[in-house]
Every structure is written in structure tokens, then in C-alpha cells.
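WARN retry 2 of 3 for item q-0093 after timeout on previous attempt; input resubmitted unchanged.
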Amino acid sequence: MCFDRSLPAPFVVEVAEALEAAAVDQLWVIEDCFYTAAVSLAATALARTEQLTVGLGIVPAVARNPAITAMELATLANLAPGRLLAGIGHGVQEWMEQMGARTLSPLTTLDEVITVVRRLLHGETVTFDGREVTMRDVSLDAPPVHAPPILAGVQGPKSLELAGRAADGVVLAEGAGPTYVAQSVARARPAGEFRVSVFTALAIVDDAAVAHRIMAPFVAGLLESGGPAVLAHPHIDEILERHAARGVDGIADMPSDWWIELGAIGTFDDAVRHAEALADAGAHDVAFFPGPTVDLVREDIEHVTRLAAALR
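OK item q-0093 returned
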């Protein structure tokens, strides 16, 4: 399950403890500017649980100095060995510029940051003179015994290729369907083990048509953003035509099978089919995005609990 950026920070304790009690595998804490921060949320969730894995989704490469990022990840990994997944991404460039942290080449920056952070977490002493990252004789006093995987939160072709050569895996944001997951793995062309974690929208209703109507504006937003995930949909041309002609109404009454590529949206069985299709496409982790309010999250914890049991 994902912990939405706009949820009140103290609520993470209730969510983490509920997921642990229900034997759900993972909680992903979302970091977007300028909402709650992932590292502090993760520390809280890890401290209040014993088995739950916590993922950082996704810290911007330039928001912290990479040496500090490595320090924070090492601290979390030492507090909860084997229970941390660390996502690092470009960050939304508008936000990076807003806080004076935008770089000339986000791609180069992410490459250098991931490279340096991974080396530090593996106990190396790092001297690095890159285009965006420089440091001299830096090493962690207490590198983790088991370094957490560093997953690149990326979308585009060049960024996926970067992830394949520099990271331990990828985090794909909501809107990523089975087709896009398979394309992403093929684009990354990893040489060894490569973890694929996918965030996906969750809206389970007994009447699938009601769920489709609820989530039609979400899909419209994906179309308007023009991201590569939604553009990989096998029926994207027809979906764009429907949206252009009828707006959200044209999306809401799309064929049910088309929704499998868009999220866990529809009946419980539809959600299971979506998650299974993601796994078949190469996803190792599927993290469901609940509704954006405390009450909806509490309802969706029950759905995620059932899904976790059904998908084991």
C-alpha cells in the first residue's frame, strides 16, 4: 500500500500497524514537494513494526546531498535490516526549480547520485568528480550490513536505460499497466537482478461501472499529462478519441478489459486480474494507491489485505 503525500503524518503509525497486523508485505511512503517527507515517515513506520518492508517513493536526487542521502538510507537500513526499499528519482523539475535545486541535466544528475549513493552504502570510500556531483574521500562510518536496493523512480526511455545500468531496479508510478511494465524492463535491459516495483491506483466497488465513473477523472489527468505509461496502453488511440469527443464520460464507459491496463479499478476480481497481469509482465512489487482521505484509506486497508491474501 502507498501512503499518500497529503495524509496527516501521524496517521502513518495507524496504517503501518494495520498493514503489519494483516500480514501485508509493504508500505510505500510518498515524498512530493512540499508535503510530508519520506525518510521521517519511513523511520516512524519501521520503528512501529517488526516485519513490514517500507519503501521510499520517491526521494528527489537533488533534494539532499548524495552523501546525506546515503547516511539517511544507511541509518534506516541499520535500524530495520532487510526492510527498506529506496526509490530515488529526478524529482518534478518545476518543484526543483521552485526551491533552487534544478540541474542542467536531470539525467546526468540522477546517474551520478545513484552511483555515489550505492557505492557509499556498499562501504566504499568515494572520491567522485562528476558534472553534478563531487566529493572527496567520503565513507560512511556505519554502512549497512545489507545495503538496501536503490530503485530509480523514472519513466522515459533514456531514464529507464540509466536505471538498467546504474540502479538495482525501478519504481514505476501509477498509470503503469502490464504493457508499460514489460516495455520498461525491455528498455532497461538490466544485466543482473533487477527489481520492478509498481504503484497502481486502487478503486474497488461491487459495481465495476461505478468504480470506472469514480476514476475517470484520474485517467483523464493521465491523458492530459501525456506520460509514457498511459501512452503505452494498447488502445490509447481509441481512448484519446473518446476523451476528445466526450470527456470523462467517454472514459467512464470504456470496455472493462481496457481498465486492466490502468489500475486496480473495478470489482475485487478486476483488481486481482490487474495485479496478476503486472506480475506476469515483470513486476515484483505492486503497491496500491488508496483513496486520498483517512476514511478511504481505512476502507482500502481492508481491500489491500484481501488482495495480499489472494495474490500470495
